[in-house]
Structure formats: C-alpha cells, structure tokens
Amino acid sequence: MSFAATERPVGAGLHAPAPRVSARRIAVVAVLSIALLAAVAASLALGSVKVPLNSVLDSLCGWLTGHHPPPIDREIILQLRLPRTLTALVVGAALGVAGALLQGSLGNPLASPDVIGVTGGAAFGAMVVILLSPASVALLPLSALAFGLLAAALVAMLSWTGRNAGGVGRLILSGIAVGSIFTAGTSMLMAVYPSRAPSAVMWLAGSLQTEGWGTIRNVAPYLGGGFLLAIGLMRPLNRLALGDEVAASLGTSPRVVRLAAIGAAAILASGSAALAGLLGFLGIVVPHTVRLLGGTSNNTFVVPVSALAGATLLTIGDVVARTVKAPLELPVGPMMVAIGVPLFLWLLRKAV
Amino acid sequence: MAVLEVVGAQVRIGDKQILHGADLSVDPGRLVAVVGPNGAGKSTLARAAAGLQRLSGGSVRWNGEDLGRIRARRLAMMRAYIPQRPRVPEGIVVREAVLIGRSPHLRPLERLGLGDRRAAEQAMERAGVLAFADRELVTLSGGELQRVQIAIGLAQEAPVLMADEPTSALDLGATSAMATLLRGLADDGLAVVLVVHDLALAAAVADEVVVISEGRSVACGPPAEVLVPAMLEEVWHVAAELETDGLGRTALHVRWLDAMAARSGVDG
C-alpha cells in the first residue's frame, strides 16, 4: 500500500496534462463581461439622483424602445452619467493595457506607467495649470497629456542613445531619473503655491468628475491610437517573451517592439491622466490579476482582457466612490485601491 | 551552391575585434559543427551568419544573396536560430511557444491558420515534445526545454537550422537525445549548423567541422581529418587524440594532467 505512491514515475505530477486552458480563459472573459455590464448599468442608474433602469434604457435608445423618459432623467443620463461612465471605461481600459504593454515589453513585473516617467510628467503638466494658472483650467488635460508624452520622449531619447541602446536596464533607470525630475518639479510648485494645493491634491488622487463631453472628445483620438497600436503589439510581445535573441531570429526587432510598446503605453497613460488624474495602481495590478485569473502570460489574452478588467474595476470603483457617502463624492483612486488590492492579494496568495 | 556561405567574416563589438576572418559553408542535408576554445568567436560567427550581429568586414550569403539585402522576416524563413540561453517565460505552455515560431509566416494581425497549427504539431512531434505540449515551459527539464527550442525553430520551416551550444547544460542522456535529433534533421535534408565545444560529440554527429581559434577559422573538413592531435595541441593546448570506431562511437583521449604543461610550453 505504502509503495503505491513511490511507484509513480518521478515527476509524474508534473507530467499530468494541464487542464484545457481555453475553458478557463473563456470563463474569465465571461465573468468579467457580466461584471462590466452590471457596473455600467449601476454607473448610469446610481448617483445623487437615482434613475430607474428602464429610464436609463429609454434615454440611451428611445428610438428603439419607443418610450420617452422624463426630460430631466434623459439630461442626467446623456450629459452627466454617460460621459462619466465612458470616461471610467476608457481610462480603466487604457491603464490596464498600458501596464500590460510595459510589463510585456520590459519583461519586468514591476513595470507600470510610473517606470517610464509618464505619471510624473503628466502630474507636473497638471500642476503647472492648477497651481500657476488656475484660470485656464480648461487646458489641464492638454497639459497633462503633453507633459506625459514629453517625459516618455525624454526617456526614450536617453535610453536609445549610446552604448547598450534600448536595453531594459537603461530604460528603467532613465525612466526613474526623468520621473524624479518631474516629481521634484511638482513638489516645488506645491511648496511655492500652498494656497492652491488642495485642488492639486484632489487631482493627484484621481477623479472622474467631468464637465460633460468636452474632455473625452479631445482625448479620445489619442487613446484610440494607443489602443490600435496595442492590438498590433500583442503577438510581437509574445515573441519578446521568449527573449530578445529568439525574437530577433524570428524577424522581429526587439528594440522597435519595445519602443512602440512604450510609445503606446505613454499615449494611453498620459491620456488617462488627462481624463482622470493619477490612477497608477490600475496599470500595475490589473495585468497581474489577469495573468493570475487566466493562468497564462500569453499577450493575446493578457492585453485585451486587461482592458476589460481595468474598465470593470474603475467603473465599479467610481460607482462606489460616489454612492457610499452620497451626495459627497469620494476620490475614486483610493476607493479603487480599497476594492482591487484585497482581490489581488487573495489571488497572489493562491498562486504563489 | 551552398545555402549559407560566409567568407572572411569580421565582427567588431565596441573597440574589440572578436572575429578577424572566419569562413563557413553549409549544404542541404549536411551537419557542420563549429568548434573552438571558449571565447574564440564560435557564437559570434554563428550570430553574424544568422544576421543577428553586424559584420564589420567579409560577407555572408544566403542562397547566393547578400545578407544585407534580405529583410528580417524573409531571413527568418531561410534559417532558424536557437540561441544559447533562451529566456523561459512564466505562464506560457509548450504549444504556445512553438506557435510563436510561426510568426515569420504571418502578416501583422493575420490569425494563425490550420496550416500553422499543423506545422507546429509536426515540429513538436519531430522534436519529441508533443507528450508535454500542454505543460508550462517553467516546469520542463533542461533537456526538454532545449528540445522545445528546436521545435520553435522547426516551426519556422526554414531549410537551415542553427543551434548555439544546445547541449552545453545537458546531462549525458539529454545530450545524446539532442545529438540524435540534430543528426536526424540533417538526414531529413535540413542544413544544420551546430556550435559546440564537445569535440567527441562534434566528431560523432558532424559531416564537417570548422575550427575557430582566436577569431579565425583555421581548419575545415571531416572531423577525423581535422581534429588530429596536432590541431588539438595547437588550438586547445592539450595532448589529446580523437578515436572513432565504425559504430558511430567516439571518444576523446586526453592527457588531462599534461594540459597545463603543454600550455605553458606553448605560451613560454
């Protein structure tokens, strides 16, 4: 009896065929999709004024249902809740994808938009407007976007010149250096203009408060470009996962892929900062969560599902942030961390 | 015409000249072993021939066409290159990794087709990795992992396979399995370039050996004719003799404890 266990060939446990992976991945996508739909419905219906779900539906597609909701409900849905919900979806998706692209291209689990200096740059861009020129607050998204991209461009320039150009180590160190310059600039501005610091702090904590469609309309083209690049990068990133040498021998230039991935991540992260302030947590945790849930690092799964998961998490976070103490609105960043971190830690405990 | 013809290859990395002039030529159905001491430039020669390392002089021709005129993706359909220390990513199973080998055949955004999946299955079968196709790479042994690398190369369906020290980290059994596989692939009609430092292994599997010493190719020909005691003494500074019997068995008889004396005799 006691020999039964030892008679198994050595490593038999390892040789057991892995369960079919695709079923698990489909389940993950299905569950996330349902959660996303529920979150969107809640995001449209809930808030300081509750709008019944059928009114939500009638407002969105009255031409289909043939019903006309009360004009005030329609106004709330179309001019306030819908742009806000869309912003949450787009920002969540963009940050999830940005993190997946960076982690995939740098082969480093800690990679996030912070690492390539984008977060620091975007924050500085926002502070310049909030602290130096609060009257022109309409320029804030543009400034955040521009400085985020500027930071990424500086990092790319610093790490793509000289010896070992384009190496991962150089890139990360350049990113940290550039990021600290901008972070220092932000601290300096806040110290010099302490009276305006409270609104700066609100922005830094991340918020989805929108004034309707204006900002999202301006930023959407950039984000669209970032998403398109990300789709094209999924398979090249898989080649990179096997090592630079293998990727190169398969006809893919590791440096070009890395540069494109960083460019796309910079656009997505700066655009997100322009729309919603700093929500860096999403970029680092969402792709890991997706890998743990799906049991795979295949980027054709991780990149799109990170978009789905990021959108879901941020939308849920936003609903909670504006309902839990309504009519007071809490900042969405800390709220999302409160929801996301326990989930992530639970997955981590199970996996490692 | 040789599928791969390297003439007088020179490579400079930084301000250090690694290759001073090396030749290499391979024909279909032949296995060429590139041998030489550590740091002689074997891997650099293979990388330069594979288009992964820029030449500072000399020429590399694939099917008579200059390497510089061949775009990366087309080159990837002409040769597969298996690096010495490939990265082993987490969360990727064998089949996914082998399918990545199909990339040169896919246009950007083109989906994997039935033909691609079939080619990957065949590559896995040929390399003997089909039995663990659904296992994650990180759970594999060194020998299994190296055969997966070969399968990735075979999935490229290129007529030339280049492998850089595929056996250097393997035990005896895994080395022998790898040798059988590579020899079999040459017998199937592939041109195989094998960078290897085990001379007994090279003599057993290769049709031809190219000896690299201090950045130059110093000899080329059938193993038994090239790896003679004088060559081993001159290049490796050892008193040694290669023995081959007609049964495919090889042995390197080395006077181990005379090596330092031989070396100091040469150096002094």
Tally of extended strands of chain A? Answer: 0
Q: Which sequence of SSEs, written as H and E, runs from N to C of chain B?
A: EEEHEEHEHHHEHEHEEHHEEH
Count the beta strands of chain B: 12
Q: What is the 3D form of chain B?
A: globular
SS-based class of chain A: mainly alpha
**Low-confidence runs of at least 5 consecutive residues of chain B:** none
Helices of chain B, by number, come to: 10
| Alpha carbon gyration radius of chain A | 22 Å
Q: Given the helix and strand composition of chain B, which structural class is it?
A: alpha/beta
CATH homologous superfamily of the largest domain in chain B - what is it? P-loop containing nucleotide triphosphate hydrolases
Mean pLDDT of chain B: 92
Q: What is the rounded distance between the termini of chain A?
A: 32 Å
Task: Write the CATH fold name of the largest domain in chain B.
Answer: Rossmann fold
Q: What do these coordinates show?
A:
The complex is a heterodimer of chains A (352) and B (268). Chain A is mainly alpha-helical. Chain A has one domain: ABC transporter involved in vitamin B12 uptake, BtuC, CATH 1.10.3470.10. Chain A has 15 helices and no strands. In chain A, helix 4 crosses helix 5, helix 6 packs parallel to helix 8 and helix 13 packs parallel to helix 15. The longest helix of chain A has 36 residues. The N terminus of chain A is likely disordered. Chain B contains 10 helices and 12 strands. The longest helix of chain B has 16 residues. Chain B is α/β, with parallel strands linked by helices and 268 residues long. Chain B folds into 2 domains: 224 residues, 3-Layer(aba) Sandwich (Rossmann fold), CATH 3.40.50.300; 41 residues, no CATH class. In chain B, the strands form 3 sheets. Chain B has a 6-stranded mixed sheet, with helices on both faces. In chain B, strands 2-1-4-5 form a 4-stranded antiparallel sheet, covered by helices on one side. A two-stranded antiparallel ribbon of chain B has the order 11-12. The N and C termini of chain B lie far apart (44 Å). In chain B, helix 6 links the parallel strand 7 and strand 8. At the A-B interface, helix 10 and helix 11 of A face helix 2, strand 6 and helix 3 of B.
